[in-house]
Amino acid sequence: MARPSRTFPERVTHATELFAPLGHIRVKAMFGGWGFYCDDLFFAIVAHDTLYLKADAGNADQFRAAGGTPFTYAMRDGSTQTMNYWTVPEEAMETPGGMRPWAQFALAAAVQARKPAKARSKRR
C-alpha cells in the first residue's frame, strides 16, 4: 500500500486509501494532476480535484449509467479532447467497499489496454 505523502492533495490521499485493498498502489504526479497505478497498471487519475477511473468500450456505459462524466481537457487550439476516464458515483467515494467494483472495472480496462509484449524474432 502506498503511504500518502503530506504533499498530496486531500483527494489524492483519500483515493489512495479507497484503493488500498486492491493491491500495491503507487501515485505519480503527471500533467498537472496525479496518476494511480495498482501493481503497475495505470488505472486512475485525479485532475482538478476530481477522481476519474479508466474505462473501455466494455464498461463505459456502466459509468455513464451511474451518472459519471468523462475526463475532458482543452487543447492549445481551443478544441476539447475526451479521454476514456470517468467519474464514479459519489457513494463510491465513501468507503473502499463502495469503490471496489468501480476500481475493478478500471483495472479490467487497464488490463485490456495493455499492449502485448513484442514477439521476439526467431533466429535460424
Topology:
Layout: H1 10-19, E1 25-30, E2 33-38, E3 41-47, E4 50-54, H2 60-65, E5 70-74, E6 80-86, H3 96-113
Antiparallel strand pairs: 1-2, 2-3, 3-4, 4-6, 5-6
Describe the structure in your own words.
The protein is an alpha+beta fold. It has a single domain (10-113), classed as YgaC/TfoX-N like chaperone (Yope Regulator, Chain: A), CATH 3.30.1460. It has helices at residues 10-19, 60-65, 96-113, and strands at 25-30, 33-38, 41-47, 50-54, 70-74, 80-86. A 6-stranded antiparallel sheet has the order 1-2-3-4-6-5. Strand 2 (33-38) and strand 3 (41-47) form a beta hairpin. Residues 119-124 have low confidence and may be disordered.
Residue share in helix: 25-40%
CATH class label: Alpha Beta
CATH superfamily, please?
YgaC/TfoX-N like chaperone
Strand order of the largest sheet: 1-2-3-4-6-5
Beta-strand residue fraction: 25-35%
Largest sheet: 6 strands, antiparallel
Residue-averaged pLDDT: 89
Tell me, briefly, the overall form.
Answer: globular
CATH fold group:
Yope Regulator, Chain: A
Give me the strand/helix succession. Answer: HEEEEHEEH
Put simply, the count of helices is 3
- The figure for the number of domains is 1
